Amino acid sequence: MPTSAQISIERVARTVGSGATQKSCPSAPAEAGALLIGVVGSDGIVQPIPTRLEIDADFIAQAGKTGAPEARFRFAGRCVEGKCRQWTGNSCGVIEKVLAGMTDQAIDPAAGLPRCAIRGSCRWYAQRGGDACRACVYVVTDQRADHLAV
After folding, report:
1. Contact 28, 77 (CB under 8 A)
2. DSSP symbol at 91
């Protein structure tokens, strides 16, 4: 009989997808079934967590009591490609903007690859490799409507 931990791991694997074509968005909104992959530190840098944790409506409700969860946590979900406003036609525009901004502002990327619970399925990693990983810790997703570009 499988343990509850095994069942949770299987459910997370189904959420993220195990196929080579299914990619994960490392900057997804907080919604039931998303994976908590990092916590924003007081310095504004995301501290990745070593294990992906699937969130539920209760987590979102609790986290939302003090503001947008995406301002304090990083979540991963399924990359929806062309259904996302950040999709450029063949890639995710977020990581491209982040990398360009870091270059423009002379921000040094993280020294090494940070630990990551989704690297194997990550859209950004598939797109830009280690450069994306080293920049990822600087991305804080804030899904509040007044901060989103139209």
Report:
1. yes
2. S
Could you give the maximum distance between any two Cα atoms of the chain, in Å? 55
Pairing of strands 35-40, 24-28: unpaired
Task: Give the pLDDT confidence of 10-35 residue by residue, as tens digits.
Answer: 343 334 444 456 999 999 999 999 99
Buried b or exposed e, range 37-67, using 16+ CB within 10 angstroms: bbebeeeeebebbeebebbeeebbeebeeee
**pLDDT for 87-101, tens place per residue?**
999 999 999 999 999
Which neighbouring-strand residues pair with 122? 24
Instruction: Determine contact, residues 98/106, Cβ cutoff 8 Å.
Output: no
pTM for the predicted model, two decimal places: 0.78
Helix (H) or strand (E) holding 101: helix 93-104
Q: How far apart are CA 102 and CA 8, in angstroms?
A: 37
Per residue in 52-69, pLDDT tens? 899 999 999 999 999 999
Yes or no: say if 40 and 101 are a contact pair by the CB < 8 Å rule.
no
CA-closest candidate to residue 53, choices 81, 73, 70? 73
